[in-house]
Amino acid sequence: MSLVQKYIKLINDSSIHVTGLVLLLPPAIVVYLFFPNIEYTHWLIASGVICTVVFSVHTVIGIYALIKKEFETVLNFLLLPAGMVCFVTYLGFK
């Protein structure tokens, strides 16, 4: 079993609180970077770069799971983060 498969199994088998932190926090920070009137600090830029990489990897895992028809993984890695992006965008630009 590869490292990616172990990570996917860990996320799919973990509680909703762990899943929420790992899967929903990076897209929220990435969307926050696009809000107007924020001050870009070194910490915000560094966390934004890290969260962008994590969010991109999760998106690739979700698309690969969609091709393989693994619906639980698609929900965790593609639909939940996409919903969080929509939710944070709605709240931020409201």
Provide tags for this entry.
94 residues, mainly alpha
Give an account of the 3D structure:
The chain has 94 residues and is mainly alpha-helical. Helices cover 82% and strands 0% of the residues. It has four helices and no strands. The protein has helices spanning 3-13, 16-32, 42-68, 71-92. The mean pLDDT is 87.
Largest sheet features: none
Percent of sequence in beta strands: under 5%
- The secondary-structure class comes to mainly alpha
Rg is: 14 Å
Topology, number of strands:
0
User: Helical residue percent?
Assistant: over 70%
Shape: globular
Q: List unreliable stretches of 5+ residues.
A: none
Give the overall pLDDT as a whole number. Answer: 87
Q: How many helix segments?
A: 4
Terminal Cα span: 45 Å
Order of helices and strands: HHHH
